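Each record in this resource describes a single protein on a pair of labelled lines. The shape at a given residue is found from the number at the same position. The record below illustrates this layout:

***
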Amino acid sequence: MKMATLIAAAALCMSSLLSLVYAGANINGYITGKVVCDPCVNGGEPIKSAQMMVICFDKKTNAGTYARKGITNEVGVYKIAMKPGIEADYCEVRLHKNSPRKGCKRIIPGMNVTTVNFNEKPVGLSNNKPVYAAVGVIGYKKKHSVCK
């Protein structure tokens, strides 16, 4: 009985490992950007653990082609994996959840979404894959903010 359990556990571990390798093979690059509090004030303050989503659409049919969530690190930067082929699509990065930062939770119309321009040169490489920058910073604002 113990041997059968060990074999089943080993098989499960191997299948999980293979799925990770396979998933990595389907990543064609990354989209990166920043989420801040009060972007109108000296570029804003980074927001850690902000959630956003990349959503892509076919340019001809406007049908959705890809969606993936991401989360910012301690300096407010996100890096979201892309699947092969979305470089031909129109992609946006949108704030996905309420701000995790106390006192900085208000949506700024027009600054809660940005686009990705795949016609621009990648800003770098990660795991030998291109990294494309979102066009603009997205963010939230405080209650009494100069951001409109």
About this structure: Confidence is low (pLDDT under 50) at residues 1-24. The two ends are 67 Å apart (CA to CA). The chain is about 15% helix and 40% strand. Residues 28-141 form a domain with the Immunoglobulin-like fold (CATH 2.60.40.10).
